[in-house]
Design brief:
The protein has 333 residues and is α+β, with helices and mostly antiparallel strands. A hairpin with a 2-residue loop joins strand 6 and strand 7.
Amino acid sequence: NGMVVVFFLAVLWGWGLAAPLPASAMAPDNGALVAQARQELGRENYEEALDLLTRAWRDGVRTPEAAFLLGRTYRSMLNYQEARRYLQEAVRLKPEYREAQLLLADTLVGLDQAAQALPILMELEAAGYEPGHTNYILGLAYYKEKNYAQAVQYFRKAQQDPKLAQDATFQDAMALAAQNRLREAKQTMTEAIGLNPQSVTAGFAQGYAASLDRCLKDYKRLRFTAFGGFDYDSNVSLQPGDAAGSVPVSGKNDVFWSLAASLEYNVLRPGPLALWAYYGYYQNFHHKLTEYDLWSNTAGVVPTYTWEKSRLWMPYVFNYSVLGYNPYSTSHA
């Protein structure tokens, strides 16, 4: 019986030596390499960090932390495609890895894939993770999606974080400008500059503020133009009017003076929606053929809505003209 027990134990011992080890047991511990790489990242030695992390990923256990640090390193080196690949792997290995999720969402926005970033950011917002950064990146994502109203809301939430206040205020102004809310955009841009006038962001903001000033000068609510002229006509005639007021071609020459003016006023404040009221005046005075003197009055309203790359308007215009002292034509369109 003793011999049987010894033989049985020997078989078990031999089987244990021959059995394959789990992959995690076979792979060397990469903790030291990852820790060293994290230190190099802190010193902004990205090439050294990448070398250490690549060795750790190739030869050691593929941990969520190693994947995240690889993604972070590639992101710092502006290689967004590789950053996305490793950050997605980090989130796959550890589904609620919040730090990796935030950087992944930011990277997706940088790759113009905001639609993919939004669900991740919504999850982070619901979890209450890094509210300032999450709100800021949500603002960027909605801006990329051209949902500027939502972008403004999130940028204003992000302004509550002192570290992000200037950048968020700057982006807030950009989103307002994209909606043609130019006066609000200019005021907000000025606020962004005041938060830290010596910063790089303030330098960008000053350039944009100057551009907004130019736009505001071009986009006035009240516009008035006027001109006068002196002409010679070798065959005085008129465009056809109403039948009752038609005048034949004169077959004669004459000189005439002409005056014209127009007045436009936007009833609404500057923004994507406008309601322009218009009045136009034209009158000429012939030296000899006074029966061809024309006085024309045009009035209209033009509702307009402007998007980033398109515009919709529905004009209504009424015209009444007098020839000499008699009604000449009436029209509307």
